[in-house]
Design goal:
This protein is of the alpha+beta class. 30% of the residues lie in helices and 36% in strands.
Length: 704
């Protein structure tokens, strides 16, 4: 209709463009005194001779709301005739028209005004059709870009409501220049994949690969085939997958899984047997190398400020040529050289080029690498599984890892695909297929697909564990089930973490204990001792409770096991429990008999038949008979790997369980690197000590 109006205007114009000043003057005078009927009549009759001025006059009439002729579309048609007339009007004629206000500047201004009026009309209609009509009829409008943006937003909104792959594909075809175009393409590809494979069986994924080989979700289809082919993750399934799908991108991982499962004990005989069992294994060099190095332990060493590795005999097997090294992890070690970081193999060769600013140790076949402040993931072949575009990447849980980009949190899968866009203020690790996210400063939960399954309405939550999670709302704590129902209302001052299936709850300065399903095992009537909050957890089926100022122990049925007659009590271990009366500690047995008298300033529970004691600010150790194995004489003493590391206030030493010295208190640090080798530090130097041979196998100058 609008096009017809415009054509009628144009076809009514003839080639004669001479200005009839008198007639036009009467028209503009009539317009000035608001005699719109006369003005419109004059301008219409003058339009074929004077399109520039008459079109301007008509456009003015049609664009004013104070007359019965108001019509934005007619105004637009008239101003287009006026604009066209500019090019057909001589300069002398234009000079005459100045006194009527029919100048090029005023014509352009009126056109902008009319375009704006039409823009607002389309805004009120708020439909894709209205905006398409505007863009079609008001082509050349100064508001075209804004109209296109609004039209595209409305169209994309309708597409989202439809939510089908056909709708997204149609949007992408119709609006190739829209800012939503790439999103539409991505959604089309994803929804096509989800629709075509909704049955979730292997045949649907196989068909998708054949029918849509260019779709980026083909990798997901391959991954799905891989996952469905190995439900029990055993060697037979992996090998069958390799034979059936030799071109699947997961074949290498399948081979590595076969190898890893077969050689899990790391013995050279097992590695050799693998070669015989799987002659089609494509990485023969891996077997040869692992056979040679499988029985060798590598220890980092330093010479002349450079780092390398030695074996358990002290022989240098990787020369000290690196600026730094870390211990081997999964057969590969991170190292640095010339301010760059990479990885080396046990053969001392560079396994992954030193192209990074920082690297982390390998974990489950992947390692974090950093460049220019951004983080990615590399596999052992040096391929970037995840591009270096993230601010941070967490460890994988439930085949998902949290990633941070531009301050927003999202998730990637094990193959590096960003399966949930970085859109949240914070995000937690997946557990049981559920993870918490934070939106608008509120916590909620999503599933593996990124769908919100529990609305973001909490002040704080934790990860789900065994089907429940602690949550906080309106300053109070409650317990939430994974289906979104509250197992325990948000009414409690505090709820501790679960230990042995029980958690402390606090209400009005009284405490009790709940099970994971939210039911009470121990009623909420006992005294809250804030000094013991972190220690009042279940241990070996018992929990420390305070009642009427005294401590005792209950079991999970609320039965009193240790009566409320002590100032403090610690968990039973090795048949004995530490108890305190009148500032001194002793030990009782299961029959509540005092078997080790009250004589210590502090004690620990027994572990491995020994308990730590404190007397006169000195630490020692006793056995279950109360015999002092190590007389209280140290500033600190800790049990490590069947030995006791002691500190005399100046340095560390090592004793055995009988109190015999292994190493004197000369060292700033002592740590076990394996069952028989100690790493000791002295004067910023270090060495390795064999506790079986009672000798250093390697040390820097300055270590004694």
């Amino acid at each position: 209709m609008q096009k017809r109006i415009l054509l009628l205007f144009i076809f009514s114009i003839v080639t004669s463009l001479s200005v009839s000043a008198g007639k036009l003057e009467k028209g503009f005078e009539a317009l000035r005194i608001y005699n719109y009927f006369k003005a419109r009549e004059i301008f219409n009759s003058s339009l074929h001779k004077n399109p520039m001025a008459a079109g301007f006059g008509l456009a003015t009439i049609y664009s004013r709301t104070d007359n019965p002729f108001y019509d934005v579309n007619l105004a637009h048609s008239a101003i287009l005739v006026s604009t066209w007339g500019i090019t057909k009007t001589s300069e002398s004629e234009k000079a005459i028209l100045v006194k009527f206000g029919a100048t090029e500047k005023n014509i352009i201004s009126l056109k902008i005004y009319i375009d704006t009026l039409a823009f607002h009309v389309a805004e009120k209609k708020a439909s894709v059709a209205a905006w398409n009509e505007y863009l079609d009829f008001y082509c050349g409008s100064v508001l075209t870009k804004e109209a296109i943006t609004i039209r595209n937003e409305l169209a994309f909104g309708e597409t989202q409501i439809a939510g089908t792959w056909e709708a997204y594909k149609n949007f992408a075809v119709l609006y190739p220049d829209a800012i939503q175009h790439q999103t539409a393409i991505s959604m089309y590809q994803r929804l096509l994949y989800e629709t075509e494979t909704k049955s979730g069986n292997i045949s649907s994924y196989e068909k998708f690969l054949v029918d849509h080989s260019e779709n980026p979700f083909c990798t997901n289809a391959e991954d799905a085939i891989f996952s469905l082919s190995v439900p029990d993750h055993n060697m037979e399934e992996y090998h069958h997958f390799i034979l059936k799908y030799p071109k699947n991108r997961n074949v290498t991982d399948a081979w590595k899984s076969v190898y890893a499962l077969y050689t899990a004990d790391g013995k050279s005989t097992t590695i050799a047997q693998f070669w015989i069992a799987y002659p089609d294994f494509p990485f023969k060099e891996t077997i040869s190398e692992d056979l040679r190095l499988s029985m060798t332990t590598f220890y980092p060493i330093r010479q002349n400020e450079k780092w390398g590795f030695m074996d358990s005999t002290g022989q240098i097997i990787i020369p000290c040529a690196f600026d730094w090294v870390e211990s081997f992890s999964e057969g590969i070690a991170s190292a640095g050289s010339n301010d760059r970081s990479g990885f080396i193999g046990k053969n001392g060769k560079i396994a992954i080029a030193f192209d990074f600013d920082e690297v982390e140790a390998f974990n489950k076949g992947l390692a974090q690498v950093k460049k220019n402040g951004k983080v990615g993931l590399t596999d052992r072949a040096g391929h970037l599984v995840v591009p270096i575009v993230y601010d941070a990447i967490s460890d994988f849980y439930d085949a998902r890892a949290v990633v941070v980009r531009d301050g927003k949190y999202g998730y990637i899968d094990m193959f590096g695909s960003e399966v949930i866009a970085c859109q949240y203020e914070q995000a937690g690790d997946f557990s049981g297929g559920i993870a918490y996210v934070v939106d608008s400063s509120k916590y909620g939960f999503i599933d593996h697909s990124g769908k919100i399954i529990i609305n973001c309405e909490f002040e704080w939550v934790e990860n789900f564990d065994h089907g429940s999670a602690r949550v906080k709302k309106d300053g109070k704590y409650g317990l939430l089930a994974s289906d979104g129902k509250l197992l325990l209302p948000c009414e409690y001052t505090n709820i501790s973490g679960f230990t042995e299936g029980f958690a402390m709850v606090v209400l009005s300065e009284q405490c009790g204990y709940i099970r994971r399903n939210g039911t009470f095992a121990i009623s909420c009537k006992y005294e809250l001792d804030k000094n013991l909050l972190g220690e009042s957890t279940f241990k070996n089926g018992l929990v420390r409770i305070k009642n009427k100022g005294k401590c005792g122990m209950l079991d999970s049925t609320e039965k009193v096991i240790v009566p409320f007659e002590f100032d403090d009590v610690l968990p039973f271990e090795n048949g004995l429990a530490p108890v305190r009366k009148k500032e001194l500690w002793g030990f009782i047995d299961s029959k509540i008999r005092l078997v080790i008298p009250y004589q210590y300033d502090w004690v620990s529970s027994f572990s491995n038949g020994m308990a730590r004691i404190k007397r006169d600010d000195k630490i020692g150790w006793i056995d279950t008979k109360g015999k002092e194995i190590i007389v209280p004489q140290f500033q600190n003493a800790t049990y490590v790997n069947r030995f006791i590391c002691v500190n005399d206030g100046n340095a560390n030493g090592l004793m055995d369980k009988k109190g015999n010295w292994i190493l004197p208190c000369n060292y700033s640090k002592i740590e076990f690197v394996d069952a028989t080798i100690l790493r000791v530090e002295m004067n910023e130097k270090f060495g390795y000590y064999n506790i079986v041979k009672c000798e250093f196998i390697w040390k820097e100058d300055g270590v004694e």
